[in-house]
Design a protein that fits this description.
Layout (H helix, E strand, L loop, with lengths): L8 H12 L3 H14 L5 H4 L5 E9 L2 E10 L14 E11 L5 E6 L3 E4 L12 E5 L2 H14 L6 E4 L9 H11 L12 E5 L3 H11 L8 E5 L5 H7 L2 H4 L2 H9 L9 E7 L7 H19 L8 E7 L13 H13 L4 E3 L17 H4 L7 H4 L2
This protein binds iron/sulfur cluster (SF4).
């Protein structure tokens, strides 16, 4: 029986007929039932569903943050030293209170175990890349959140472990399932792919967004630095694709429907938090917004999310103070940047932005960073 988390319903139906002799319409009905209720009578279908291995919760102003772990079977493409070993992935459900006071949940998905990008401020980046997730393992996180933890998931962000554009084929295949009207039926504009700026991946993503059914996919860029010197220090991806190349790729992302392009900026004391840094950020964003406004729009293309740094384990940097974060936000706004502050959630259980990672694996630093080799 095909894996119902790996393919959209129509494909599942035709494969179930070809592989198991199942009538297509019955297979499609079973697919719909599984995604809508979480139930299936078919043991071959249930065999594809992974259980949750651990759940941790923490309260915040908006409700309860839930971090959950899922165990993955060993796969042949794991990093040397971990071949044959079971792995865990982490996902986080984050409560948000909307404008009308209604609580919704954003699901932060992982796209890889570990990450090759080695961002200096990030817990996952200290692990190296162990392996990329399959479409089924990505959709499995949604399935677990929706049907095992029984949360309504209104938004999905690819901001967990891994760089989604470094696993783009599988991430796109997973989104194909997540947005399938026979399956999870998550509205595409509620799904955001967040990247550190792999320019080749952004170019492919932009081309995908020109295809029918893909126009309104959300994109977020982790900028985190005001200039190439600082970005080179904390984000090795910048060695290969400096800010000018990143900005050109961002301008080329199609803007259907007027959704904002999120620019993530983790504020790290002593690294990227000076007054002149705010001015450099404004200089970086201006051409992106000018290109957008030249097309007849009346509000800026970008929304800058200012994120107070969550210290990773053994971090050389502290978290910024509230006052300093608020002051930097005011500076950005005074410079005409549309900016918001993201509240820190989940810091104590290592479930906040840049903090997902496994300490045991991390100690082993297994993977050569292909980007650093290209410097
Ligand atoms: S911030 Fe994202 S891209 Fe950078 S190391 Fe962490 S998980 Fe990877």
């Amino acid at each position: 029986m095909p894996d119902p988390l790996a393919v959209p319903g129509e494909v599942f139906g035709s494969r179930a007929k070809a592989e198991a002799g199942f009538p297509t319409s019955r297979a499609l009905e079973a697919y719909r039932r599984l995604h809508r209720t979480g139930e299936s009578n078919d043991t071959a279908v249930r065999a594809h569903l992974a259980p949750i291995s651990d759940v941790r919760t923490e309260t915040c102003d908006e409700g309860t943050i839930t971090k959950f772990l899922m165990r993955l079977p060993a796969a042949p493409n794991q990093a040397p030293g971990l071949a044959g070993q079971e792995l865990e992935i982490e996902s986080v459900l984050i409560p948000m209170i909307g404008r009308k006071g209604v609580r919704t949940y954003t699901l932060c998905l992982s796209s890889q175990v570990g990450c090759a990008m080695a961002c200096g401020f990030c817990e996952t980046g200290q692990m190296g890349l162990i392996r990329s997730l399959t479409p089924s393992e990505i959709v499995g996180q949604w399935f677990a959140a929706r049907h095992l933890l029984k949360h309504d998931v209104s938004n999905i962000v690819f901001m967990g472990m891994g760089e989604p554009l470094n696993n783009l084929d599988n991430v796109l295949a997973a989104i194909e399932v997540l947005k399938d009207h026979n399956g999870p039926a998550v509205t595409l504009s509620k799904i955001t792919v967040s990247t550190v700026g792999l320019v080749d991946g952004l170019t492919r993503l932009a081309a995908k967004m020109h295809e029918p059914g893909w126009h309104r996919l959300g994109v977020a860029i982790s900028l985190n630095a005001p200039n190439d010197r600082v970005r080179d220090e904390i984000m090795p991806v910048n060695w290969r694709w400096p800010l000018a190349a990143l900005r050109d790729a961002v301008i080329a992302i199609p803007a259907y429907g007027g959704g904002k392009l999120c620019i993530e900026y983790v504020l790290i004391p002593g690294v990227n938090d000076r007054d002149e840094h705010a001015r450099e950020i404004a200089d970086f964003l201006r051409p992106i917004n000018d290109a957008y406004l030249a097309g007849g729009r009346t509000s800026p293309r970008t929304l800058l999310n200012l994120i107070p740094y969550n210290p990773r384990r053994n971090s050389p940097w502290p978290a910024p103070t509230e006052e300093h974060t608020d002051r930097f936000l005011s500076l950005l706004r005074d410079l005409g940047i549309y900016a918001k502050r993201r509240r820190t959630k989940g810091r104590t259980m290592m479930g906040a932005c840049g903090q997902l990672g496994n300490e045991q694996i991390r100690r082993r630093r297994l993977v050569d960073l292909s980007i650093s080799a290209e410097r």
